[in-house]
């Protein structure tokens, strides 16, 4: 693959694509209905953040939000935290999903897994099954405000259960069955659920994982439960004998007992909770982040229609589990009338081509994945365009970590030449991406196309001065509808303020390291608390990872900065070698030369060490801060909650390293 520089132009949208873009239709609507004319995306963005009340009111009107009680006020205050959107209005999320069922001949959902063949679900069936589960929830006494928790993979039943829950104004929260038992309990106990949904197990990488005993342990740890719904996923004949059987309902029975009728929508206050998402919980218990029904409706309508360009003809996929916010975002694709694609399983089983095969099988138009998956395909020299029919594919979206310029180029050389690539950044905190893509702008290597509409994002220096073409803290200086309404069990808001508003008063600090370019594109350089400080110059870790990723012998890498009060900081680089390779002195020199040439002398690590694996969260993000804390000699309770990790055993090598080095 040829060399590519950050900021190199790789793709421009055709005139036809620009004209067909959903955001172009919105700009035409603004001109016709509001007498507002914008020359380009950036002038539209400027208006959307300078006149945020007018902008978000236009989103309400454009998407014709249904409110049993209308709003009088768009925004109660610009003060953060505490700003409330459309405070008088009442809405229901699920009602807006099923507005699409009467005028779409496309399936609502396509789902498949290592257990199930590809299946299409019509809007009619999705509606009928949601009726059945809503009726079951009502019989079990579930009502507005009750918490429904689900220990469930990314399968069809999860979507049905969520839509039924939201239709009643109840509050949803889910965890993937690959989470550790205590990790699930630590999440669900905090919100005192009334109902528990569980599967009997799951399959991953060809292996069967029975979870009936784990489900029973979770159930017994939730004293507020009134009922359990059991879903037979591994075994149609599963008895769930280990569950406490009082008020246990089997999914198939719930579906079969449905009576004729329609969904009864419970309208709730715009700022009432829709779901509780949890932070990764790498230290301490995960933070229970609560998003509102109305805030999510507004933001997901906007982001998925204008920034993902979704409509009824689209088939929208994101590789995710129910324990990651991207599952909630994926389900939001139904708001646009598009078909969403669910996949449960290992994306690299039986080979890394599995998701590209799925793209062909489902005629996928939008392929959502992680930057790490793209770079893994690149390192293995996979060429999807030579193996699969990807003629329907129009967009690849990437998140989870910064997509390096080489990842962009690999997509154009090996997936499709006429392809809109949208690298995105946001997070669980807001359940969206607020730096992302738009189909009417060009794509530059390593850059995120734009700041999202209505998101007043800046890069601040330590004194709160906005920066251009320099790296700073990613902040939001105005309220945003999908910000958390609160953390559960945080009555005075102290944990919320500590999480986002501790650095700049009244301004949301997101925790990422950002550069805004003169072209109004953006580059994310990693977490700001993981940056490296060399002689007062802050360096994002993603720059170093990009350089190391170019060395074919290396599978993965992690770098941390260990400050010292008496001398220069210690900056070790840890590498995982590919099978059959080892870290030699010659390779160490090559790595340092490569980093020096592609970055700068300041980026060169103090030393390089080989480790067998790198610790990652359950969502696949590598953990720089816990490794840093290990090397600083912090006690275990301050380092990491092992139940929040995909591979907790990977920490062992770093404890051994710390002991060996006597740091």
TrEMBL record:
Domain Acetyl-coenzyme A synthetase N-terminal: 41-96
AMP-binding enzyme C-terminal domain location: 547-621
CDD domains: AACS
InterPro entries found in the cross-reference section: Acac_CoA_synth (IPR005914), ACAS_N (IPR032387), AMP-bd_C (IPR025110), AMP-bd_C_sf (IPR045851), AMP-binding_CS (IPR020845), AMP-dep_synth/lig_dom (IPR000873), ANL_N_sf (IPR042099)
Keywords attached to this entry: ATP-binding, Ligase, Nucleotide-binding
Residues in AMP-dependent synthetase/ligase domain copies: 102-479
One Pfam family per UniProt: AMP-binding
A GO term for molecular function: ATP binding
GO biological process: lipid metabolic process
Gene3D superfamilies found in the cross-reference section: 3.30.300.30, N-terminal domain of ligase-like (3.40.50.12780)
NCBIfam families linked to this entry: ac_ac_CoA_syn, PRK03584.1
Family, similarity comment: Belongs to the ATP-dependent AMP-binding enzyme family.
Protein name (database record): Acetoacetate--CoA ligase
Organism: Virgibacillus dokdonensis
């Amino acid at each position: 693959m040829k060399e590519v520089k950050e900021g190199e132009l790789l793709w421009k949208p055709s005139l036809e694509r620009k004209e067909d873009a959903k955001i172009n239709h919105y700009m035409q609507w603004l001109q016709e209905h509001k007498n507002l004319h914008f020359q380009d995306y950036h002038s539209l963005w400027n208006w959307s953040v300078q006149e945020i009340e007018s902008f978000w009111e236009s989103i309400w009107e454009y998407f014709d939000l249904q409110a049993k009680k209308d709003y009088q006020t768009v925004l109660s205050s610009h003060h953060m935290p505490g700003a409330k959107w459309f405070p008088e209005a009442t809405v229901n999320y699920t009602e807006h999903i099923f507005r699409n069922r009467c005028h779409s001949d496309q399936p609502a959902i396509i789902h498949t897994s290592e257990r199930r063949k590809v299946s299409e679900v019509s809007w009619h069936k999705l509606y009928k099954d949601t009726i059945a589960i809503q009726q079951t929830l009502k019989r079990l006494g579930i009502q507005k405000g009750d918490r429904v928790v689900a220990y469930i993979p990314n399968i069809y039943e999860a979507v049905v259960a969520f839509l039924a829950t939201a239709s009643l104004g109840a509050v949803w929260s889910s965890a993937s069955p690959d989470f550790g038992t205590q990790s699930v309990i630590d999440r669900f106990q905090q919100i005192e659920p009334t109902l528990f949904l569980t599967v009997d197990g799951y399959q991953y990488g060809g292996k069967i994982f029975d979870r009936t005993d784990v489900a029973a342990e979770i159930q017994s740890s939730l004293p507020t439960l009134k009922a359990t719904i059991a879903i037979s996923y591994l075994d149609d004949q599963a008895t769930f004998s280990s569950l406490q059987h009082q008020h246990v309902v089997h999914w198939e029975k719930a579906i079969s007992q449905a009576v004729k009728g329609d969904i009864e929508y419970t309208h709730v206050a715009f700022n009432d909770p829709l779901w509780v998402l949890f932070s990764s919980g790498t230290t301490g218990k995960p933070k229970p982040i609560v998003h509102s029904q109305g805030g999510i409706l507004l933001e997901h309508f906007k982001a998925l229609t204008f920034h993902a360009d979704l409509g009824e003809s689209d088939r929208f996929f994101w590789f995710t589990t129910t324990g990651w916010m991207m599952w909630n975002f994926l389900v939001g694709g139904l708001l646009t009338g598009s078909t969403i694609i669910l996949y449960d399983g290992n994306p690299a089983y039986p080979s890394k081509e599995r998701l590209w095969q799925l793209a062909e099988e489902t005629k996928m138009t939008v392929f959502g994945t992680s930057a790490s998956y793209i770079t893994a395909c690149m390192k293995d020299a996979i060429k999807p365009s030579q193996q699969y029919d990807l003629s329907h594919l129009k967009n690849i979206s990437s998140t989870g970590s910064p997509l390096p310029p080489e990842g962009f180029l690999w997509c154009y050389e090996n997936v499709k030449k006429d392809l809109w690539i949208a690298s995105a950044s946001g997070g669980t905190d807001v359940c969206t991406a607020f730096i992302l893509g738009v189909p009417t702008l060009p794509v530059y290597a390593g850059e995120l196309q734009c700041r999202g509409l209505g998101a007043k994002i800046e890069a601040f220096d330590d004194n709160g001065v906005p920066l251009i073409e320099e790296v700073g803290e990613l902040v939001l200086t105005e309220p945003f509808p999908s910000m958390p309404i609160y953390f559960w069990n945080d009555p005075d808001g102290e944990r919320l303020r500590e999480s986002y508003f501790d650095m700049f008063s009244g301004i949301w600090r997101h925790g990422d390291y950002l550069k805004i370019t003169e072209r109004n594109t953006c580059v994310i350089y990693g977490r700001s608390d993981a940056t490296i400080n060399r002689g007062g110059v802050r360096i994002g870790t993603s720059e170093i990872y990009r350089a190391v990723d170019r060395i074919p012998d290396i599978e993965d890498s992690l770098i941390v900065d260990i400050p010292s009060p008496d001398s220069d900081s210690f900056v070790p680089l840890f590498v995982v070698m590919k099978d059959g390779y080892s870290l030699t002195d010659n390779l160490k020199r090559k790595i340092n030369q490569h980093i020096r040439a592609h970055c700068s002398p300041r980026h060169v690590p103090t030393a390089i060490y080989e480790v067998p694996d790198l610790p990652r969260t359950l969502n696949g993000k590598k953990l720089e801060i816990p490794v840093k804390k290990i090397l600083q000699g912090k006690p275990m309770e301050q380092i990491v909650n092992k139940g929040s990790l995909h591979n907790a055993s990977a920490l062992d090598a770093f404890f051994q390293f710390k002991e060996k080095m006597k740091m």
